[in-house]
Design brief:
Blueprint lengths: L20 E4 L4 E4 L2 E2 H7 L2 H10 L5 H11 L7 H8 L7 H17 L12 H26 L13 H10 L5 H14 L6 H11 L4 H13 L6 H12 L5 H10 L19 H14 L3 H18 L6 H11 L6 H22 L26
Antiparallel strand pairs: 1-2, 2-3
Helix pairs in contact: 1-8, 2-16, 4-5, 5-6, 5-10, 6-7, 6-16, 7-8, 8-13, 8-15, 8-16, 9-10, 9-16, 10-16, 11-15, 13-15
The protein binds s-citryldethia Coenzyme A (SDX).
S-citryldethia Coenzyme A binds next to loops.
């Protein structure tokens, strides 16, 4: 096979069609079911965007109320999930906790439900499972952070919306509307992004007719990587290393000399900036004002200007979201789990879409190993 046929990392390869989102690097735009993500982030509660991704239309008030009523049963931390998490070491990575929790939920839901031939489930079963995970993840992520801080889980409050309740269960304080709005915007921006590595992982697993939970566990594993979702955590590690704006230049000299990837910058699809960054940066700016932290803006802007100036590589969504979550009070290790709590909507929308028009995903490989050879003295049985 000619080398030119090989697209390492599947870069530039169109693997399938999707109606869920359109990422357009030429216009630097992102549409969720046709709506610009900026409009959704400015006007919708996150759970309405979840409905849009799953069903293709924004919900009526009645449809949103029905979704909220159905999701309410899953909001509290389930005892079996708490048990599954509690048997893990306190210092295991929260993405491993999350992977374990989703696996436990899936194993329990699928118990006694037949053989692998029944694994894939019906569309209605998988819509219900999608809502279950969407509604359950906030309590799991919140408990993970509180457990590492030796704090008890906090029960959900029925009267609070998705974002307010997430913040309540994490911090146990009445969240300020400024913080709720910034958090809600971040979840909508993180929700969906076509065939990114973790979503494509979920589609590959679904294409074998495996179950939704297995596909989500695989996607969590893919998202953990610092080249993908783990970058938002890594951005804060970099900020902590640099310390303050006046240390950016020497730090960057050093980092680039040792060929380090600067986390939060660059993108496989966007090459002139990530369409979501301006909206997330505006949310970060409101938090910087709210918490009176001009030092954060100083460091953020100095590193961005310096790196873009030198390499012409622009920030991606993880760059503004890392400091934003830090200002909200989330532990750095909680950042990528927040990405999971948002992206569960995109992943499950793609799982449903793959299921609806499935073909086993199995690309080819070119071989460059040894030519055929044989074992000395081996004589095949005649
Ligand atoms: C997400 O796909 C999605 O949609 C993902 C995502 C989503 O919503 O699902 O948007 C979320 O994952 C965003 C990306 C988060 N990752 C990071 O911030 C990690 C740092 N970024 C890089 O590792 C990199 O930019 C990638 C992996 C994101 C994209 O890389 P590509 O497209 O594979 O390009 P590349 O790595 O081949 O880079 C091309 C050149 C290389 O230089 P050379 O080796 O050719 O000399 O640019 C350099 C790279 O070294 N480069 C960087 C860099 N990004 C690219 N150099 C330093 N720091 C960087 N961040």
């Amino acid at each position: 096979m000619a080398d030119t046929d090989i697209k390492k990392g599947l870069a530039g390869v169109v693997a399938d069609v999707t109606a869920i989102s359109k990422v357009n690097p030429d216009t630097n735009s992102l549409l969720y079911r046709g709506y610009p993500v900026q409009e959704l982030a400015a006007t919708q509660p996150f759970d309405a965007v979840a409905y849009l991704l799953w069903h293709g239309e924004l919900p009526t008030d009645e449809q949103l109320a029905a979704q909220r009523a159905e999701g309410r049963q899953y909001r509290a931390l389930a005892p079996e999930v708490k048990t599954a998490i509690d048997q893990l070491p306190l210092d295991c990575h929260p993405m491993d906790e999350l992977r374990t929790a989703v696996s436990a939920i899936g194993a329990i839901d699928l118990a006694g439900k037949g053989s692998v031939l029944d694994a894939v489930g019906t569309v209605e079963e998988n819509r219900a499972r999608s809502l279950h995970l969407f509604a359950a993840l906030p309590s799991i992520v919140a408990y993970g952070q509180r457990r590492r801080q030796h704090l008890e889980p906090i029960a959900p409050r029925e009267e609070l919306d998705y974002s307010s309740n997430f913040l309540w269960m994490t911090f146990g304080e009445e969240p300020d509307p400024v913080v709720v709005d910034a958090f809600n915007r971040s979840m909508i921006l993180y929700a969906e992004h076509s065939f990114n590595a973790s979503t494509f992982t979920a589609r590959v697993i679904t294409s074998t007719l495996s179950d939704l939970y297995s596909a989500v566990v695989g996607a969590i594993g893919a998202l953990k990587g610092p080249l993908h979702g783990g970058a938002n955590e890594a951005v804060l590690h970099i900020f902590d290393e640099i310390g303050s704006a006046d240390n950016v230049v020497p730090w960057l000299d050093d980092a680039l000399a040792s060929k380090r990837k600067i986390m939060g910058f660059g993108h496989r699809v966007y090459k002139r900036g990530d369409s979501r960054v301006p909206t997330m940066k505006a949310a970060l700016d409101t938090l910087i004002d709210f918490y009176d932290r001009p030092d954060v803006l100083d460091l953020y802007s100095t590193l961005e200007a310096e790196f873009v100036g030198r390499k012409g590589i622009y920030p991606n969504l993880d760059y503004p979201s890392g400091p934003a979550y830090n200002l909200m009070g989330f532990d750095t290790l909680t950042f990528t789990p927040l990405f999971v709590a948002a992206r569960i909507t995109g992943w499950t929308a793609h799982i449903l879409e793959q299921q609806a028009s499935n073909a086993l995903i199995r690309p080819l490989s070119a071989y460059d190993g040894p030519d055929e050879r044989h074992i000395n003295g081996y004589r095949p049985d005649t």
